[in-house]
Amino acid sequence: MPSKYRPQILGWIGDLDKGTQYITGADDRLLYANDNYCAFIRKIKSDQIFYLFISLISIIGLTFYIFFYFYFVVNLEPGVDNDEKIIDIVLLLGTITCFFALYLMIPECYQNLFTRRGSPIIFNRKTGKVYVNESYFFNFKSLRNPLTFLHPNKKRIKEYDWAYLQGVVVHNFSNYSLNTTILMVCKPHTHKTIDHILLDPLRIGVGSYMVWGWVNNFMCCNDLINLNAGKYKSEQEIQFKKEIIKGQGWPEWMVEA
Questions:
Q1: 19-56: b (≥16 Cβ within 10 Å) or e
Q2: What's the CA gap between 67 and 226, in Å, rounded?
Q3: Residues 105-160: pLDDT tens digits?
Q4: What is the average per-residue pLDDT within 36-54?
Q5: Which secondary structure element, helix H or strand E, spans residue 161, and what is its range?
Q6: β-strand partners of 161
Q7: 3-class secondary-structure state, position 72
Q8: Beta-carbon neighbour count of residue 90 at 10 Å?
Q9: Would you list the domain boundaries of the chain?
Q10: Parallel/antiparallel/unpaired status of strands 37-40 and 30-33
C-alpha cells in the first residue's frame, strides 16, 4: 500500500498516525520540555563528526580523480584503437559519475560542518506551532540549485502548523537498516506535500519511532509523559536557552513559553 502523502518520498516504509497510542518513554534526543514547548536534538555529535569525515574524504578523493582525468586529457594523445577508445569512454563516464557524487556530497559536508548544537527542533503545544532553525542543507532533498553551494552557511528559519505536519518513516538502503522519521508538510486539508522536515534521522528499528511518539503525546497533552526526562529539567529553561539557543539566530518569539 503506497503512502497517502504525495509525492511519495524515496525509501518510504510507512505513514505514521497521530495520537497518544505510542510509547511514552523518554528518548535520549529530548533536550528540554516544559508545560508549553519541548525541544529535540536531531544531530548527535558523534554522528556529525563521522559523516563530516566521510564526506570530506569522499570530496577529496573525487576531486583528485577529476583533476587527474583532466590532466591526462590535456597531456595525452586521444586513443586511436578500439581498446584505447573504450578506456577513454570508461574514464569519461567515471568522471561524470564523480561530478554527480560531488553534487551529492557537498551538501552532506556543509550540513555536518555548519550544523550547530544538534540542530534542535521545537514543538509548542500552546501555539500549535513547530519551529526549525537549521542549515539550508539539513533536509532530505537530493536536487538543489548548484548556486546554493556558494553559500555553505545558509540557514532556514521557519514556522509550521503542527496540524499540517504528518510523519513518515523511510530507510537508507544500507545493510544497517537505519530508519529516518520525516515530517511531511502538507497543504491545508490535503495530502499534497509542499516541504519536508527531518525529525529523527538514522535510527535503528523501533528507535526510529520514539521521538515521533513522544512528540505526539506531548502535543496531545498526555500526562503520562515526563517533562523532566530530557537533558535539561523543566526548571532549567534559562540554562537550556543559554547553552542551546543563544547566539544561534533563533527569533526570541520562537522560544517563549
A1: eeebebebbebbbbbbeebbbbbbbeeeebeebbeebe
A2: 55
A3: 999 999 999 988 889 999 999 999 999 999 999 887 777 888 989 999 999 999 99
A4: 92
A5: strand 155-161
A6: 129
A7: helix
A8: 10
A9: 12-43+118-246, 49-114
A10: antiparallel
Closest CA to 40 of 197, 224, 238, 174: 197
- Integer Cα distance of 56 and 31 in angstroms: 29
Which residues make Cβ contacts (< 8 Å) with residue 233, sequence separation at least 6? none
Which residues does 153 contact at the CB level (< 8 Å), separation at least 6?
110, 114, 135
- What pTM value is reported for the model? 0.87
Report how far apart the first and last C-alpha atoms of the chain are (Å, whole number). Answer: 41
| Cα distances (angstroms) measured from residue 105 to each of 19, 174, 184 | 37, 17, 24
List pLDDT tens digits, range 12-40.
Answer: 888 998 887 776 665 688 999 999 999 99
In whole angstroms, what is the distance from residue 88 CA to residue 95 CA? 11
Q: Is 121 exposed, middle or buried (0-12, 13-18, 19+ CB in 10 A)?
A: buried
Report helix, strand or coil for 112: helix
Burial of 127 by CB count in 10 Å (0-12 exposed, 13-18 middle, 19+ buried)?
Answer: middle
Please choose, from the candidates 107, 106, 20, 95, the residue with its C-alpha nearest in 3D space to the C-alpha of residue 65. Answer: 95
d(CA 183, CA 4): 13
